[in-house]
Amino acid sequence: MSMFGFGKKDEFPDGPGKNGDGSGDGDGGDKKPNRPSNARIVIWIVVGGVGLYLIGSGLYGVLTH
């Protein structure tokens, strides 16, 4: 399948590792399909931290002036 989702279709849509059986990718099959990836969790933590910092610094600025 192409990068943008059109063009040549995937030749093996039900190939190894796509059904969560652990074959092909070596993860042991313990990956849950509805769980977000670790990278997405880290991004949300970083964005949340920046947001909390901005809110906290804004409240501090309002209260000190």
UniProtKB/TrEMBL annotation:
Taxonomy, superkingdom: Bacteria
Region described as Disordered: 1-36
Sequence ranges of Gly residues compositional bias: 17-26
Keywords: Membrane, Transmembrane, Transmembrane helix
Tagged with keyword Transmembrane: yes
Annotated TM spans: 41-63
Protein name: Uncharacterized protein
Species in which this protein is naturally found: Herbiconiux ginsengi
